[in-house]
Amino acid sequence: MSIPKEKLLWMYQTMVKSRYYEELLVEAYSEGKKPVFNIGAGPVPGEMHLSNGQEPAAVGICAHLTEDDTVASPHRPHHHAIAKGVDLKRMTAEIFGKVTGLGKGKGGHMHLFDPAVKFSCGGIVAAGIPQAAGAALAAKQKGKDWVAVAFIGEGAVNAGAFHESMNLAALWKLPLIVVVEDNSWGISVPKTASTAIFSNDKRATAYDNTKGYYVKDNDPMEMYMASQEAVERARRGEGPSIIEIETYRFLGHFQGDPELYREKDEVPALLTKDPIEKLKNHLINEELATENELEQLENEAKHDVDVAFEYARQSEYPLPESALQDVFC
Length: 329
Hints:
Blueprint: H1 5-30, H2 55-62, E1 70-73, H3 78-84, H4 88-95, E2 113-114, E3 119-121, H5 128-142, E4 148-153, H6 160-171, E5 176-182, E6 185-186, E7 189-190, E8 211-215, H7 220-235, E9 241-246, H8 266-271, H9 275-285, H10 291-314
Parallel strand pairs: 1-3, 1-4, 4-5, 5-9, 8-9
Antiparallel strand pairs: 2-3, 6-7
Helix pairs in contact: 1-2, 1-3, 1-9, 1-10, 2-3, 2-7, 4-10, 5-6
């Protein structure tokens, strides 16, 4: 199966955009938090979970999605949001807690929501799977060929919400795709100490009408191809899929994480497997793009990010009296 050149170029540019976005976010988040780490200080307060290294999971499947398809993301959401086409300026303003943000500064980085492109960040662990299953059920009831995707970490597969949602999705043949990003760590617990199966795609055999896919070594092209098949069968009404991708978290579970659970050489070894460099080399070696053409794509991506951060920094904070406005219980 060949991948169209325009899709590969989009994937490359989107991964670069996501990586650069989070590099700037690290800088902004670190402001005011040194020399002693203070989670409440600086222009971006609160906990911060970043996804550098995990970009292939997002671009591989979002390359097949439209604005009518739903994406539910967990607490590490930025690469998913960027790949789904969430408004970059308003997302950044939301993370900075500004009134121009997606949620008027009330949600922050863990509760991003953009109905224009059917994107939501359901919060921690497996919370987004039932939301995605509900969107998949709505699509089926409306007679649409829409697909719903839930991104989760490998630890979330052990939560009840995963099994409950998969059971109903299989029973009703819902167009639900669960993407499991296996970065080997559930906070500080290794996968081998929490999960009694090597790869979670094999859990698909427990449910009728469900197919499992495994993507090795964080490969964006393999992720694209597995996702294409999963999306196509979902649109045909053939039922749900589970895609597990072996991916790599370059940073800690959260910013400020001392990462005492990791071996000293783990991250340097992972950095040699950078998926952005892998795709770049493929594009050049296959003569699909020149270094100058890729540099242009990189510059365009970084420009968009720079504009978004400037917009967020220049935006106003909400007034105190607006704290209870637009809040629904």
